[in-house]
Each structure stands twice: as C-alpha cells, then as structure tokens.
Amino acid sequence: MKNWGFKIAKPRIIDLDTANTKAFEELCEKVPSAKRCIMCGACTATCSAANHTSFNFRKCNIMFRRGQFEGLAEELDKCMLCGKCKLVCPRAVNTRAFIYNMRIFLNDLNYKNIK
Ligand code: SF4
Ligand code: SF4
C-alpha cells in the first residue's frame, strides 16, 4: 500500500445496534428523570468540578448511554456531588443521583470482572 505520509483517522462511528444500551435502561429504573435529558449542557457549563478539572458531565452521560465505559469511572470520580448541576437543569434531571448511580454500576461491573 502506498505511504501517503499521514494516517487515516479512526472512524468515530458508533453502531447503536451493537452498543450496550442496557446500562442506561437499568439506570433509568433508579433515576427515571435521566430520560428527560436533552443534552443542553447547562449542567456542564455550571459544574464546580469542571472549573478545576477536565470533568464534563454531558460527555460522561453520552458515554454511559453508548456503553462506552473505558475510563469513565475515573472521570466520574472528579465529581464532588455538590448538586449545582441539578439546580440549573431545565429538565429537572436528578443529575446527582444520575452520577452516583453510574458510579455504583461501574463499580459493580469492575467487581464482577475481578471475580
Ligand atoms: S442540564 Fe439537564 S437537560 Fe441539560 S444536559 Fe444537563 S442533565 Fe441534560
Ligand atoms: S454534582 Fe458533580 S457534575 Fe454536578 S455540579 Fe457538582 S461537581 Fe459538577
């Protein structure tokens, strides 16, 4: 194959037919308001942790919905559970419970993988 001097970027296509969306369904049973999220980003714009770190709740939310768990637990650990995001959410999503339950799910997943 000819060397063009550059690499073709890995496609960012997400195949939702094969993505693990069960985790989000499971989370919605505990936090039904999670379904109301419209990805407006208001939570991320006002996030206390985002002021000091690279934490991005909206991104974590998307990753979890798509079943992309790699590195997600470490990201979620940056959240201080202060609840500021919950106060500004226009859809009254219980963001704090959302984050807390994502942590529990990922922790359980990790535990199952170790066992
Ligand atoms: S503010 Fe609420 S609706 Fe907007 S992205 Fe955050 S959780 Fe979703
Ligand atoms: S609870 Fe977490 S995500 Fe929400 S504003 Fe506080 S640090 Fe940010």
Bound molecules: iron/sulfur cluster
Instruction: Report the CATH architecture.
Output: Orthogonal Bundle
The biggest sheet amounts to: none
Detail the poorly predicted runs.
none
The general outline is globular
Q: Helicity, in percent?
A: 40-55%
CATH homologous superfamily placement? Alpha-helical ferredoxin
User: Total helix count?
Assistant: 7
The tally of beta strands, per DSSP, is 0
H and E order: HHHHHHH
Describe this structure as you would to a colleague.
By secondary structure, the protein is an all-alpha fold. It has one domain (22-114): Alpha-helical ferredoxin (Fumarate Reductase Iron-sulfur Protein, Chain B, domain 2, Orthogonal Bundle), CATH 1.10.1060.10. The chain is 51% helix and 0% strand. The chain has seven helices and no strands. It has helices at residues 22-30, 42-46, 48-52, 57-66, 72-76, 84-88, 95-114. The model has no long low-confidence stretch (mean pLDDT 91). One iron/sulfur cluster (SF4) is lined by residues 47-49, 57, 79-85, 95-96, 99.
Could you give a quick summary of the protein structure above?
With 115 residues, the chain is mainly alpha-helical. Helix content is 51%, strand content 0%.
Provide tags for this entry.
single chain, 115 residues, mainly alpha, Fumarate Reductase Iron-sulfur Protein, Chain B, domain 2, 51% helix, 0% strand, globular, binds iron/sulfur cluster
